[in-house]
Amino acid sequence: MFKGSIVAIVTPFKDGKFDRENFRKLIEFQISNGTDGIVPVGCTGEAATLTHDEHKEVIEFTLEVVNHRVPVIAGTGSNSTSEALGLTRFAEKVHCDGALIITPYYNKPTQNGLYIHYKKIAEDVNIPIILYNVPSRTGISILPETVAKLSEIKNIVGIKEASGSLDQVSKIISLCPDDFVLLSGDDSLTLPIMSVGGKGVISVAANIMPAQLKEMVQSSLSNNWQQAQKIHIHLFDMFKALFIETNPIPVKTCLYLMKMIDLELRLPLTPPSEENKNKLEGILKKYCLI
């Protein structure tokens, strides 16, 4: 269920509120282009500035529109264990296919604290859980040995790895069971991660180029490494452009330039500088997207 090209979908806003109409169009765009799964209300979905009611609204609306066509993996993490547990219970209640739970940010727990955090959530629900390691955002990295210990819990089924370390990826794969799924959390590292045993990506770039991401990941899964490498090199400039400012500023700007959403972000995120907006426009023209 949890492999392939999975999109970390943006949350569009209109006049400060969740834009259901354009979000529906974004989901249909993803499904029609072969995306293997959808992650609403993750980092790319600006979960940190959504109210709890909005968070739940986006999850429920995603499920309604997707209607079982692809898996829906809801972002339910928090730096408060009780808050993360509450959001994960909600995801289970409304029948999400899985929950993506980021490591607690700001608190900087010990490895034992991380273990207890995830164990407490996993033992309270039956929904499949994917760990999410992104130390550049959270200030803490979950070590491979901790991941291996957590992989023994039956409904902790995988990890989204965005540490930027292939050594860490390799160590996790070597320590965890064969059915534990490792997904790339960094578009530009998806190909090398898959070459050492990763099963796909939870992707930012798939918001704007879903068919190409799907082809690259499927080629890797089919051991067609020559084709996967060709696509990776072709998309590399796009991968990097989407991080010239804090995610999701660039990807939302691209979707705006593609006339798919309004250019609205929640403070403290702001629209890009004029210089970077021009760079993104140039990248979109290079890939014939505008």
Automatic annotation (TrEMBL):
Q: Which reaction does it catalyse?
A: L-aspartate 4-semialdehyde + pyruvate = (2S,4S)-4-hydroxy-2,3,4,5-tetrahydrodipicolinate + H2O + H(+)
Binding of pyruvate occurs at T44, I202
- Leading EC class: lyase
Instruction: Give the GO terms filed under biological process for this record.
Output: diaminopimelate biosynthetic process; lysine biosynthetic process via diaminopimelate
> Which GO molecular function terms does the record list?
4-hydroxy-tetrahydrodipicolinate synthase activity
Q: What is its EC number?
A: 4.3.3.7
Please tell me whether the keyword Lyase is annotated for this protein: yes
InterPro entries, A to Z: Aldolase_TIM, DapA, DapA-like, Schiff_base-form_aldolases_AS
One Pfam family of this chain: DHDPS
Look up the domain of life of the source: Bacteria
SUPFAM superfamilies noted in UniProt? Aldolase
Keywords on this record? Amino-acid biosynthesis, Cytoplasm, Diaminopimelate biosynthesis, Lyase, Lysine biosynthesis, Schiff base
Catalytic residues per the record? Y132 (proton donor/acceptor), K160 (schiff-base intermediate with substrate)
Cytoplasm keyword on record: yes
The entry's cellular-component GO terms read: cytosol
Pathway as given in its UniProt record: Amino-acid biosynthesis; L-lysine biosynthesis via DAP pathway; (S)-tetrahydrodipicolinate from L-aspartate: step 3/4
Name the residues annotated as site: Part of a proton relay during catalysis.
Y106
Subcellular localization: Cytoplasm
Q: Spell out the PANTHER family in the cross-references.
A: 4-HYDROXY-2-OXOGLUTARATE ALDOLASE, MITOCHONDRIAL, DIHYDRODIPICOLINATE SYNTHASE
What assembly does the database describe for this protein?
A: Homotetramer; dimer of dimers.
HAMAP family for the chain: DapA (MF_00418)
Q: What does this protein do?
A: Catalyzes the condensation of (S)-aspartate-beta-semialdehyde [(S)-ASA] and pyruvate to 4-hydroxy-tetrahydrodipicolinate (HTPA).
Report what the protein is called: 4-hydroxy-tetrahydrodipicolinate synthase
Q: What lineage, starting at the top, does this entry show?
A: Bacteria, Bacteria division TA06
